[in-house]
Amino acid sequence: MSKFRLSTAALALAAAPALAQLATPLPSPNATVAQTIGITKAEVVYSRPSVKGRVIWGELVPFDQVWRTGANNITKISFDTDVTVEGQKLAAGAYGLFTIPGKTEWTVIFNRQSTGSPYDYAADKDALRVKVKPVALTEPKELFTISFPAVSASGATLQLAWEKLKVSLAIGVDTNGAFLAKAKEAVAAAKPDDWRTAATAARYLYDNKFALDDAAKFLDKSLATKETFGNLALKANVLAAAGDRKGALVWADKAFAAGKTAEPKPSPEALADLEKSVAAWKK
């Protein structure tokens, strides 16, 4: 009998942690939305309250008071590179996203406290405040929603929408500058036999006609490790873009020569593109 009682007690103790960890549904479920903007990652972690037949703006969420912009804990927004918000600079990092809704204008706040209770909000920790106008939704939205409805290589729209209103913020990124900084780090850290990383960096810079001097340096490092039709042809194109057509023709000849012995062979399209460029450089 004592052994049975001991076993039962042991089972009860073993089950206790499991019961303590049992999750129950939240009235305002947690959500995460992430978006890549160029090479910048933006992420928002928040909770989604429901309308439930209530009047939201001016009643449940009072006008002209700081709102936690969601439910439960602080709404957290993060960027892994520097960005602009409505044209104003915001450093890379994580922030608490707060708002002050108004009848005709909202203040959107990026606060340095990104975790914990939203009731601990302190204005002296604000990193940035911007003003935006609320706009009526064409269709009511039951759940509070944060999204990125428009995205390009250099920016995105961050939208907050609930009940009958939405507000939108323009997020800007310096994709070329961020790429160049990361490319320099990657090329510097590349292994001695890695010619591809430097060539990839140079290709992006050439395609975007940006920092061609750096593209040339990256190519020199790639070519010093291994010469291929691809990086030789790219060297020719970079020189031509910089105005050195004579040098471009020299490197184009090297690319054609490398292409004859390369395995696998360059694609017919790549060869045709270089031939077309050479014809233009000779004019």
Low-confidence stretches: 1-13
Report the helical percentage: 25-40%
> Order of strands in the sheet with the most strands?
1-2-3-6-7-8
Order of helices and strands: HEEEEEEEEEEHHHHHH
Whole-number tally of structural domains: 2
Q: How would you describe the overall organization of this protein?
A:
The chain has 283 residues and is an alpha+beta fold. The protein folds into two domains: 26-173, no CATH class; 175-282, Tetratricopeptide repeat domain (Serine Threonine Protein Phosphatase 5, Tetratricopeptide repeat), CATH 1.25.40.10. 37% of the residues lie in helices and 29% in strands. The protein contains seven helices and ten strands. Strands 1-2-3-6-7-8 form a six-stranded antiparallel sheet, with no helix packed on it. Strands 5-4-10-9 form a four-stranded antiparallel sheet, with no helix packed on it. Helix 2 runs antiparallel to helix 3, helix 3 (196-207) packs parallel to helix 5 (229-241) and helix 4 packs antiparallel against helix 5. The longest helix has 19 residues, at 2-20. The radius of gyration is 28 Å and the shape is elongated. The model is unreliable at 1-13 (pLDDT under 50).
Which features would summarize this protein structure in a list?
283 residues; alpha+beta; Serine Threonine Protein Phosphatase 5, Tetratricopeptide repeat; 2 domains; 4-stranded antiparallel beta sheet; disordered N terminus
